[in-house]
Write a structure and sequence with these properties.
With 332 residues, the chain is an alpha/beta fold. The protein contains eleven helices and eleven strands. The strands form two sheets. Strands 1, 2, 3, 4, 5, 6, 7, 10 and 11 form a nine-stranded mixed β-sheet that branches. It has a two-stranded antiparallel sheet with strand order 8-9. α2 packs antiparallel against α3. The N terminus and C terminus are likely disordered.
């Protein structure tokens, strides 16, 4: 069954209007006003008695009215509608996976099954994603040869993911961590181009060394829109929706408001979205895979979506003449 959001919205407005009129016409409220004005010239004691009895009822009805309107408001705000631009307008979805062992050693044995489940989902939706492979003293994902080959065979990009930047004290240590990852990736003829720091913690020096090593894209920023770094790497921040002053919703599958983020950002003019998750998320949350499937179906039904890798995003923003294209107000 196809749900028309506009019809639902109009229905909610009708419910609000009818409910409001119904409560205002309820006997208690009508009785209060009627009796108050009729009796106001009578004895003060009689008037006070009317007020003491009926005011309580009016307060209760008022509280019910406020609660009803709040509930209806929440229902109305949860209705997901795409923007009002042309239906054929394209959005670009950059799907990234922090491909790693996870927070617990117990998740190590789940890597093959969880990775293949994600790959199956991507095949269903014809998604070309970027797998950012952890390669450090914690785990070397390039040791999973079968999985690396399956990821590459499906046309996905493999990038570099590193957690230990905060513990690297010298430039030599930083260079070594990058060189080790490039060497491991080189066994599969992979030229690493994209990087995300663990916990989104990056330093200017590490970015400089990444650029020197041939990296083109960084994904270590949690908020903002795509822009060029001073070293001319492309920064692809995680898409987020700011709510109030300190509350942000991120496009990261840790919440169930992903459709709302896309819809509202689209209405505000956004057409490039950066999404991320860990493959082990589907192990910790058994319902997540189904939600991911529904999310991709939602955006494919409501938008003309194109899935691209981070390396493809870099090429899209870079001209054949080798000049960077201005892509946001943050462009230096």
């Amino acid at each position: 069954m196809i749900i028309d959001p506009i019809k639902i919205y109009e229905k909610v407005k009708h419910i609000v209007r009818e409910g409001f009129l119904h409560i205002l016409s309820c006997p208690t409220i009508k009785c209060f006003y009627s009796r108050y004005f009729k009796e106001k010239h009578k004895k003060q004691k009689r008037c006070e008695n009317i007020m003491s009895v009926d005011t309580k009822r009016v307060c209760l009805d008022s509280i019910k009215l406020i609660l009803s309107l709040l509930v209806i408001g929440v229902m109305a705000s949860s209705i997901q509608t795409p923007g009002h631009r042309e239906p054929n307008f394209s959005i670009i979805m950059i799907v990234t996976v922090d491909w790693e062992v996870g927070n617990e050693d117990a998740l190590m044995h789940t890597i093959p099954d969880s990775t293949r489940a994600v790959l199956t989902l991507f095949r269903k939706h014809d998604i070309k994603a970027t797998f950012l492979a952890e390669c450090d003293s914690i785990v070397n994902m390039f040791e999973y040869e079968d999985l690396v080959n399956e990821i590459l065979a499906d046309g996905h990009e493999i990038g570099f993911h590193f957690h230990l930047i905060r513990w690297l004290q010298t430039e030599t240590q930083m260079k070594t961590s990058i060189e080790y990852a490039k060497e491991e990736a080189g066994r599969y003829n992979i030229d690493l181009k994209s990087f995300r720091a663990g916990c989104f913690e990056i330093t200017p020096k590490y970015l400089e060394l990444l650029k020197e090593a041939g990296f083109q894209v960084d994904l270590s920023e949690r908020e903002g829109t795509p822009y060029w770094l001073d070293n001319r790497m492309l920064e692809l921040p995680l898409t987020h929706l700011k709510k109030w002053r300190f509350l942000n919703y991120y496009l990261d599958f840790y919440n169930r408001d992903m459709e709302k983020i896309v819809n509202e950002k689209y209405k505000d003019g956004a057409d490039i979205f950066v999404l991320y998750f860990h493959q082990w998320n589907i192990v910790e949350d058994k319902k997540l895979l189904d939600y991911m499937d529904n999310f991709f179906e939602h955006i494919e039904k409501n938008y003309n979506v194109k899935y691209i890798t981070c390396e493809e995003a870099y090429q899209m923003f870079y001209t054949d003449e080798g000049n960077n294209v201005s892509i946001s107000h943050d462009d230096p």
